[in-house]
Hints:
Elements: E1 4-6, H1 14-18, H2 22-31, E2 37-43, E3 46-51, E4 56-60, E5 65-69
Antiparallel strand pairs: 1-2, 2-3, 3-4, 4-5
Amino acid sequence: AWKKVDMKHSAVPAAVVASLPAPAAAYLDSSFPGIQVEKVKIERRRYTVELLNGIELEFDSNGVCREIDD
């Protein structure tokens, strides 16, 4: 299993986003429609997601957004 996917200025494969907990993927779709994910990292029960627009989000292991940094 992967721990980090960083596409460096392009979108990660859709399968990577689909592998996030369902609430996290749904939150990204509803809150940031059309903005692609550039980087995903898994660390000790949390997911860090960076969007192509520079916004970074942190989700817990259940997919609940805990932090947004722009």
